[in-house]
Amino acid sequence: MTSSSKFLRSLTGEISAIPPIWFMRQAGRYLPEYRKLREEAGSFLDLCYNPAMASEVTLQPVRRYDLDAAILFADILLIPDAMGQKLSFEAGEGPILEPVITSKNLDAFRSRDIHETLAPVYETVKQTRAGLGDDKALIGFAGGPWTVATYMMNGRSSRDPSALRNIYYEDRPFLSALIDSLVEYTIEYLNRQIKAGADAVQLFDTWASGLPWPVLDAVSVRPLQKIAAGVKNAHPETPVILFPKGVGEKATEYATLPECDGLGIDYAMDAAWARANLAGHTVIQGALDPLSVITGGDDMLKGASAYLKLFHDTPYIFNLGHGFSPETPPEHVGQLVEFIRGGDW
Ligand code: CP3
């Protein structure tokens, strides 16, 4: 049966005159309707763990812009939170995880039933799916194990997350054990999202950038492949999209994985290179510079036009090359969607 979702059809290889559209961080602080609910919820985490509110926030951008897909409102750091590493967000500080994970306390975090804490997320998926038309897809997601591990090991955002790779040389058994646990937890987390109604899943490996081979292979390519395989084992029909940010030509290693249905490329990737070297292996998603949408106008439209022209004859999903910033004017997003749908690029 063909899907009524353009986004899902594109992931099975359909080429459409106007590609499906969704945006990373499409729900969030740039939208006034988000800020209102976020204030009512109290904290960002209270919002993530409140299914009625989280599903409303998930639906807000789809309603406002008639996007082709919704992305579950949650965070990649909910898994560490559920593992017992308490997560909080401080204004101007970003995420804080306590206590910092080390080889000495790792075992305490490895045998948790994370799904009790994460149950509200599955309920959010269920309520969101019920609120979406058949023509709209719901994307579930999780963080890549390396990206999540950088926050777990540092306790907060790092100025240079790739510098944490020293642990690969200093204590590889600890790093492998942490990554393996995250792989196991993430497979089950995504499978439960799919059971609750997610139509596709995306893995965000934001801090894959700056890692030399074979570190990248060990902490990003193989773990993402294992997760994708674990998902496909339980749900063979559910597409898996990988977003390894900043990996340059090493994107080939992800695009050629048999488990990779779609590959998110970032704004710094040479798009013509991606068209020539990646598009034959997987469906490309991306990669407009989100900062061009803050300024809007010609740079935003010409940027979008370049991607649309380059990928018009291959299965393609329009997106950003990373998430929207809070300063993005919502009307620019509206203009962008109208421009893409207008077809006059
Ligand atoms: O894309 C979406 O709309 C879905 C929801 C989503 C969020 N975070 C909501 C969020 C997704 C997919 C993420 C992924 C995520 N979270 C990543 C990987 C992708 C990326 O953007 O690089 C990372 C590294 C995180 C960790 C994280 N969560 C950070 C660094 C921050 C920013 C802290 C800050 O104060 O700006 C968050 C918070 C967060 N996650 C917000 C949102 C909407 C802002 C929270 C708020 O409302 O204050």
Q: Which of globular, elongated, flat, extended, rod-shaped describes the shape?
A: globular
Associated small molecules: coproporphyrinogen III
End-to-end Cα distance: 32 Å
The count of DSSP E runs of length 2 or more, i.e. the number of strands, is 9
The share of residues in helices is: 40-55%
The spatial strand order of the largest sheet comes to 1-4-5-6-7-8-9
* Structural class designation: alpha/beta
Low-confidence stretches: none
Question: Any overview of this molecule?
Answer:
This protein has helices spanning 6-11, 32-41, 44-48, 51-65, 78-83, 106-110, 114-130, 145-154, 166-170, 172-196, 215-234, 251-255, 271-277, 290-295, 297-310, 330-342; strands at residues 69-71, 86-90, 94-98, 137-143, 200-205, 240-244, 262-264, 283-288, 316-320. With 345 residues, the chain is of the alpha/beta class. The longest helix has 25 residues, at 172-196. The strands form two sheets. The chain has a seven-stranded parallel β-sheet with strand order 1-4-5-6-7-8-9. The mean pLDDT is 97. Bound molecules: coproporphyrinogen III. The site of coproporphyrinogen III has 23 residues, from strand 3 and strand 4.
